[in-house]
Design a protein that fits this description.
The complex is a heterodimer of chains A (218) and B (666).
Chain A: H1 3-23, H2 27-52, H3 56-83, H4 95-116, H5 124-144, H6 148-168, H7 174-202, H8 207-213
Helix pairs in contact in A: 1-2, 1-5, 2-3, 2-6, 3-7, 4-5, 5-6, 6-7
Chain B: H1 2-23, H2 29-54, E1 59-62, E2 71-74, H3 77-100, H4 107-110, H5 113-126, H6 130-148, H7 155-183, H8 191-197, H9 201-219, H10 228-234, H11 237-262, H12 268-290, H13 295-322, H14 326-361, H15 372-375, H16 377-390, H17 397-410, H18 418-450, H19 457-460, H20 467-485, H21 487-502, H22 527-548, H23 574-589, E3 593-597, E4 608-612, H24 616-636, H25 644-664
Antiparallel strand pairs in B: 1-2, 3-4
Helix pairs in contact in B: 1-2, 1-5, 2-3, 3-5, 3-11, 3-14, 3-20, 3-21, 5-6, 5-11, 6-7, 7-9, 7-10, 9-11, 10-11, 10-13, 11-13, 11-14, 12-13, 12-18, 13-14, 13-17, 13-18, 14-16, 14-17, 14-20, 14-21, 16-18, 16-20, 17-20, 20-21
Classes of the chains: A mainly alpha (218), B mainly alpha (666).
Chain lengths: 218, 666
Amino acid sequence: MGPLDIAHFLAGFVVLLSFSLLYQDRLPPLINTFAAQSLVLALSVAWQAQTQHAPHLLITAGIELGFKTVLIPLVLYWTIRNLKIHRTVEIVVGVGPTIIAGIALVGLSAGLMLRAAAGVGGLAHQDMAFALSVVLLGMLMMVTRRNAVSQVIGFMSIENGLVLAATGARGMPFVVETCVAFSVLVALIVIGIFLFRIRERFDSVDLALIDSFRGERS
Amino acid sequence: MLIFAALICQAVLVGIAGFAVCTAAARWANGIVYSATAVACLTGLGIALTCLLGQTQPALALPIGIPWVGMHFRIDALAAVFLAVVNLGGAAASIFAVGYGRHEQFPQRVLPFVPAFLAAMNLVVLADDAFTFLLSWEGMSLLSWALVVSHDRTAENLRAGLIYMAMAGFGTLALLTAFAVLTGSGGDFTFAAIRAHGVSPALSGVVLWLALMGAGSKAGIFPLHAWLPLAHPAAPGHVSALMSGVMTKVAVYGFVRIVFDLMGPVDWTLSIAVIAVGAVTALLGVLYALMQHDLKRLLAYHTVENIGIIFVGLGMALAFRSSGLAAAAALAFTAALFHVFNHSLFKSLLFFGSGAIQNATGERDMDRLGGLIRVMPQTAVAFLIGAAAISALPPLNGFASEWMIFQAAFLSAGLPQWGLRLMIPAAAAVLALSAALAAACFVKAFGITFLGRARSEAASSAKETDKASRFAMFALAAGCGVAGIAPGLYTNLLRPAVQMLTQAAMPFATLPAPLAPVAASHNTYNGLVIALCVVAAMLIVAIGMKVFANRRTRRSDTWDCGHPEANVHAQYTAGSFAQPIRRVYASIVFRAREAVHMPPPCDLAAARIETSLNDPAWILLYAPVGRAISVVSGRLNPFQHLTIRYYLGIVFVTLVVLLTVLAIWP
C-alpha cells in the first residue's frame, strides 16, 4: 500500500463513520461514533503531515485528538447526564431513506469533484470528494434529526469535513485551521448553554416543542 | 503635495464635524463651526484652482481601506472643476449658515452633518478607484439623508426621508453594478486599470444605462427625480442649497467620469438616450415647477429642469465625439460644465433666499407670502438676480451657458447620422420652450412672493435677514453677474478638462473680446455689450416713466388710495398665475382637472375652485413598482417564520441543487 492509498483509506473511513452517525438512534452511541470519526480524522491528518512533510499539520491532528476525540465527547456525555434527557434521537426522516439520500450525496460529490478538480495533480480530487461527502452528510444529519444534541454533532461533523478538505488540499494556511477549530469550540460552549436554557424551559431538547411554543405548529 | 493638502482639508472637515458633535448644543458653536467649514472649503477651492491653472494632476494612494488595495486619490482636470464647484458652494452655504443657523431649533441635528457631508462630496470627486468612489458616494447619501430627516416632526419630512433612502440605495446599486461591469474579472478597481481595460461595445450600452440610472437618480433625471422635490425642501435652507446646488453636480460628475472617461469611445446610438432623457427631464421639470406653490419645492423642481439641460449638453458632446467632431464636442461639453457651475451659483442663491424668507416668516407657501420687497429689500434684490439668472436672461450666467448649448445644437447639421440631425434641433426646441416656461415660473415665484401685498400677518411683519446671509447671497449674485458678463474667464478654466475628455477645447478667450464658441467668424457673445445695453434700456425706461407717466391724470374712487379692492386675497395667487399654462400643457401630461363648486342658492358659503394634478412618474412607475413589491413581500412573508430546521433544510437543498447543476453542467 502506498502513502496515497493509506490516506484514501483513512478519508474513506471518515465517510463511512459519517454514515454510521446517520444510522445511530440513541445518544451515547452517537457520541461514541463521533469520537471515533474524530479519531480517524486525527490519524488521517497525522498521515498527511507525514506524507506532505508539513509538521504544522501535526498540531492540527493534536487539536483534533484533544478537542474532538476527548474533550467534546466528554462534555456532551456530561451534558446528557446532567440534562437527564431521553437518550433516544428524535428522527424526522427514517433511517433507511436517510442512508439512501446519503449515498446519493456521496455519489454527487464524487461526480462533482471528478469534474471540478480534474486538473489538480495526484488524487486530490478524491480527497475533496470525501471531504465534501462528510460536509453534506453532516448537513443531512442536521436537517433530518430533531434532537438538539444530534444537531450539535451534525455541526461538529461538518467541521470534520472541512478539516479533511483543508489537509487534503495543500497550502491551506495553518491559521485558518486553528481559527476553525476554535470557532467550533466556541460554538460548543454557546450551544451547550442554549441546550441548558432550552431544557430548563421545556423539559426536553426536542426542538419540535420549541416550534409549538412559537405558535407555529402543534 | 496639493492632493495631500486636499485630503487634509477633508480630514479637517471631519474634525469640525466631530467638534460639532461635542459642542452643537452650545449657542456659540454655530458661528465657529460654520466659519471653520467655510475656511476649509475656501482652501479646497484654492487647491482646485491651483490645479486648474497649473495643469498639474497630483495623485496619491493611501494604505487604508481594503487591505492590499488601499484608497487612491487624484485631482485631474475634471476632478478639479468639480472640486471647485463643490467647495465654492460649500463655502457660500457655510457663510450663509453663520447667520441662518442661529435660528435652527435643533442645531445638534444639523451642525455635525454639514461639514461631514461636504467632506464626503469632496472625496467622491477626489476618488481614483471604484471602491473609494462608492464608499464616499454612499457616505454622501447617508449624511444628506440625516440632514433631510433633521426635522422629523412632520410626517411629510419622514416620508421624504424614506423615499430618499430607497432611491439612494437604488442609485448606489446601479453604480455598483456599473463599476462591476467596468472592472470585469480583473479585480483591479483603480480608474487607471479600468480605463486601460476598456469595455466591450456590447457592454457599453449596459454601463451607460446603469450610469444614467445611478448618477441620474441622484441628480434627479425624470422619472427618477421623485425623491428630489420631497427631500431637498425638507432640509434646512443652506442644506437645501448644498443638495440642489452641489450634490446634484457631484452626481453629474459621476456620470461624466464613467461615461466620458472610464468607458472610452461610446457608440452614437447611446447618445440618443442621454439627449432624450435630458430633454424630457428639462421640460417636465419646469412644468412640475410651474404647478407648485411651495417656494422651496418650486426651486427643487427647477433643479430637475437644469439637470435636464446639462444632460442634453452632455448627450450632444457624446454624439459629436463619437462622430469625430471634436470642436463641436468640446463646445457642448464646455457648455454643460459651465452650466453645472452656473446652476450651482444661482440655485444656491435662490435657496438661500427662500431660507431667509422661511426664517423671517416661517412660511414656504407662496400663497401666504407677498409684499416682501418692502420688508426684505436686499433679499429681494439678490433673489431677483438669481431668478433672472436661472431664467436665462442676459447678461447673467444662465444665459451664457444656455446660449452655448444652443450654439452646439446648431452644429448638429455636421453630423453624419440623420437621426441625430433631426433629434438635436428638436431637443434644442424643447430646451427653448423650457427656458421660456422657466422665465414664466420665476415671474410667478418673484411676483407672488415679493410683490403685491402681504397675504399673512407673518409676511407683513417680516424682518430683513442678517448680515452674513446677505453677504453670501450678494457674493453669489455677483458671481452670477461676472460669469455672465465675462464667460471667457470660466471657459478658459474649463479647457484642460474639456481637452482631456473630448481631445479638443474651445478657443482661448481673451477678455475684452467677445466669447466665440467655434471661431470669431461664427456667432459670438459679448456679455459686456449686452450688460451695457440692458443697463441703458433700464435707465431709459426708468427716466421715461419718471418723465411721462407722472404727468397723466389718474382717476380713482375717493379714499381708496389707488387700491380698488381692499382684500389681499383678490391678488393673483401662485395657482391663478399658473392657470393658463396649466390648461395648455398640464391637462394631458399631468391630467390636471379643475372643478368649480358653487354653493347652493341661499347658502352664504364661498364658491370654491379645486384643481387636481396627477404625477405621471408616480402613476406609471412608482405605484406599480410599489404594488409589485408589496405583493412579492406578502408572498415571501411565511418564510420569515420557519423553524431553524426548515431554514437548514432550505440551505441544504439549495446547496445540493447548485452542486448538482455544477456536476451536470456541460
